[in-house]
Amino acid sequence: MQFKILKKDGFARTALLETKRGVIHTPAFMPVGTNGTVKAMTPEEVRDIGYEIILSNTYHLYLRPGHETIKEIGGIHRFINWQGPILTDSGGFQIYSLASLRKITSEGVEFRSHIDGSLHFISPERAIEIQIALGSDIMMVFDECVPYPAEKQYVEKSIKLTKDWAERCKNYFEKQRTNQSLFGIIQGGVYDDLREKSLEEIVKIGFDGYAIGGLSVGEPKEDMYRVVKNVTPLMPEDKPRYLMGVGDLIDVLHAVEHGIDMFDCVMPTRNARNGTLFTSRGRISIKRSEFKDDSTALDPECDCYTCRNYTKAFLRHLYMCREILSMRLNTIHNLYFYCKFFEKMRTAIAEGRFQDFKKEWLPVLEKN
Ligand SMILES: CC#C[C@H]1NC(N)=Nc2cc3[nH]c(NC)nc3cc21
Ligand SMILES: [Zn+2]
């Protein structure tokens, strides 16, 4: 995997992340395809909007349909019909946030499936074995996910386990010699000294890219911003930096300013299904009665399929009827809005205008 920095504007940077299945222009947003689908979208629609990489979840695909099934079919790209790069999260966070009756030992995590209550055990090695079977282009290490808030001594113990597990993931991966990439995950909660300790330990092991984990888990925004501000510049400059689970475009602006390259979040897709739509005039809730007779386009500045062909009145009508088309048209627009935002942001960085871009967009993004 090649990571080539094109332009810098302060700590912000544009780069090309070259994988065997295609190039990713960064800063990049990864739509979330948890069960192998970006909800309500065909892969062609996601690609035609402009996305180059999507995220999928090891935890979900392992539980259903099973990684062996996907391997039998020909791997995740064949299974979900997405030929571009795919990043898979390792399951650590999903076990922590979804599964029940979790038991964490130094060996791994025992948990009950949120689907049928069946008992499972995933070790760091198993998490990599599953991702190798899926065949994702970028795999994540199996990290111990700390609830928020957590006492400092708990977090201190946890980063030790996360480091041991990261080593085990890399050792197992290196024995398999597949042509996939493996990213490390830096933990440490909201404690700056533990963040630096975790960063040093994970970077010392050595990975193809580095993620900041443990954020966007309910902590105050100022804690997230402080950790990103302090940790990001210390991350290897010549490797991709991935802020997991982020996010809101205001948070994206703050993170890109400090040098983050990759993002994933359910916000554009989940909000779309709930009728919350991002526009160049701020966020709107399409179910509001004010749109009942509104014959104008959702966003006059947007040239997505939804904005070119439908009125707010019809989008509201679809939402009120709980029509499937409502989810599809809203998702097309929100994903298009995110994709264009990232394109414009990359151009602004390339032209040395990132600060202007941030000043222009913050007031719009803060408008509800
Ligand atoms: C604790 C921890 C941690 C991180 N570890 C892994 N493997 N994946 C994550 C995914 C996330 N999504 C969000 N917010 C939506 N925060 C995340 C954090 C992580
Ligand atoms: Zn649109």
State the distance separating the first and last CA atoms.
40 Å
* Distinct small molecules: ligand K75, zinc ion
Q: Roughly what fraction of the amino acids lie in strands?
A: 15-25%
Residues in helices, as a percent range: 40-55%
Rg for CA atoms: 20 Å
Q: How does the overall form come out from the CA principal axes?
A: globular
Low-confidence stretches: none
If strands are numbered along the chain, what order do they take across the biggest sheet?
4-14-13-12-11-10-6-5
Q: Tell how many strands the DSSP assignment holds.
A: 16
Q: Roughly what is the average pLDDT, rounded to an integer? A: 97
Description:
The structure is a single chain. The chain has helices at residues 43-49, 58-63, 67-73, 76-80, 92-98, 124-134, 152-176, 192-205, 221-231, 249-257, 267-273, 305-309, 312-320, 324-350, 354-366, and strands at residues 2-9, 12-19, 22-26, 28-31, 54-57, 86-89, 100-104, 109-112, 119-122, 138-140, 181-186, 209-212, 241-243, 262-265, 276-279, 282-285. It has 368 residues and is of the alpha/beta class. A hairpin with a 6-residue loop joins strand 8 (109-112) and strand 9 (119-122). Helix 3 (67-73) runs parallel beside helix 6 (124-134), helix 13 packs across helix 14 (324-350) and helix 14 runs antiparallel to helix 15. The protein starts with a strand and ends with a helix. The structure holds ligand K75 and zinc ion. The site of zinc ion has 8 residues, from helix 12 and helix 14.
Give the structure's gist in a few sentences.
With 368 residues, the protein is α/β, with parallel strands linked by helices.
